[in-house]
Amino acid sequence: MAERGRPRGFDAGAALDRAVEVFWRQGYEGASLTDLTDAMGINRTSMYAAFGNKEDLFRRAVARYAEADMAYAREALTRPTAYDVIETFLRANADALTRSDRPAGCLSVQGGLAEGGDHGNIAKFLAGSRLAGEQELADRLARAVTEGDLPAGTDPRELARYVMVVSEGNAVHAAAGATRAALHATVDIALRAVPRTRTGNSVAQDVSFGSPH
């Protein structure tokens, strides 16, 4: 006998992907259980059995989103120079924010913009997720400072924060209808502030993030 409340052929991965899109379009507060179960093609009993409550489902959806839709961020960290890391990340991010087959903007930014009766738990969770990504970037940039790829005195945490502010700002504008070209124009300006020390094709700059303490 099939598990009670769970339809035959239930694909948890596909259902989770559909939940990602609902949360992405409507945010955590805006997505009702009916919206979620209708999109996932299951009833509430099945949802609770497979994913837990709404908050549990949202956390699972964010993890799925990070794994699939933000793979470009992990790939950017493998680039050979700090400038390449930052440019690759911001360019790929601008493209991801404006994909025709996905909602505009970013789930991790839009998902928790409105707080309700969850005591800010979702907003804190998303902030923590973004901070973890920022820390990964800061660690990569710290290595670049050690290797001499970034000027001595560059604060990798402040530079990473700057990059994330650009990314998150673009996400907000993308959700409001900004075009891919407009986002890339913002990236063009942002990249001028990235310090570089390598010779050859790179142009050395005197810009340094962070001030001595």
Describe this structure in words.
With 213 residues, this protein is mainly α. Helix content is 63%, strand content 0%. The protein contains ten helices and no strands. The protein starts with 11 loop residues before the first helix and ends in a 22-residue tail after the last helix.
SS elements, strand count:
0
Helix content: 55-70%
Mean pLDDT: 87
Q: What form results from the Cα inertia axes?
A: elongated
Blueprint of the fold:
Elements: H1 12-30, H2 33-40, H3 44-51, H4 54-68, H5 71-76, H6 82-97, H7 107-110, H8 121-146, H9 156-175, H10 180-191
Helix pairs in contact: 1-2, 1-4, 6-9, 6-10, 8-9, 9-10
List keywords for this structure.
213 residues; mainly alpha; 10 helices; disordered C terminus
Summarize this entry quickly.
This protein is mainly alpha-helical and about 210 residues long.
